[in-house]
């Protein structure tokens, strides 16, 4: 087994491969506002353990999906149309939406729901 692999018994939740320090780097690097009160989960918590009033966002949203806060109007439109909460988006879904938005903007087009639905 490689050094960075984590052995997980069937039925157990995989262990996070990052720590409080990496979380703090993410918060600083992406300039999270202090009023958002972002916090790192305690040992043994899962994404389902977010307290009332909090949501879970995956680091991959930011690192791989190029998601930023505050979000764009286009992203809010997509979430509203499909009836998703941001915490229900997968990192790959985030990549698809953000990629479409970047392509539109790079060609001088305003991304909108009609164009997005025509492509996807």
Briefly say what this structure is.
Helix content is 40%, strand content 0%. The protein is mainly α.
Q: Major beta sheet, specifics?
A: none
Mean pLDDT reading: 84
- The ordered string of helix (H) and strand (E) elements is HHHHH
Q: Total strand count, please?
A: 0
Counting DSSP H or I runs of 4 or more residues, the number of helices is: 5
Strand fraction: under 5%
Give the helix level as a range of percent: 40-55%
Kindly report how far apart the N and C termini lie: 40 Å
Cα gyration radius (Å): 17 Å
pLDDT under 50 segments (min length 5)?
none
Structurally, how many domains make up the residues?
Answer: 2
Global geometry: elongated
Q: Specify the structural class.
A: mainly alpha
Describe the structure.
The chain has 120 residues and is an all-alpha fold. It contains five helices and no strands. The relative contact order is 0.10. It has helices spanning 20-29, 59-63, 73-82, 91-106, 113-119. The protein folds into two domains: 1-51, no CATH class; 57-120, no CATH class.
